[in-house]
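I'll show a typical protein example:
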Amino acid sequence: MSKVHVRLADWHKDNAALRRIREAVFINEQSVAPELEWDSEDSQAIHFLALEDDYPIGTARLLSDGHIGRVSVLRDWRGLKVGERLMQAAIAEAEQRGLRQQHLSAQVHATAFYERLGFRIVSDEYLEAGIPHVDMLRESH
């Protein structure tokens, strides 16, 4: 694998790349309705873009309340720690902004991934966009 890096993204300048990744993962693969995927929080969120060389392969976003979401990696790059790098960048940014608690809504199948990053399950299972989820919390020390 060549050089993978994560950088802060600009919702307007990087919009096409951010949308392409999220559409591929959430709308096309997981059948999330487009009206559920896109919300007014995107324009206010801090976005992260994972790239292999200059090719966008993953994204995530951080909201002002410490909520990390929309973590997505294109299928061909899964299992290569791209999601982990995105999460580490989002956690570091949250901590830098004084957000000592980070929380997320995790698809149930991905809870072990988030647990390895220090998150713990804090809710019962529920459906979001027809997919089983749980709320997870991470507290900075």
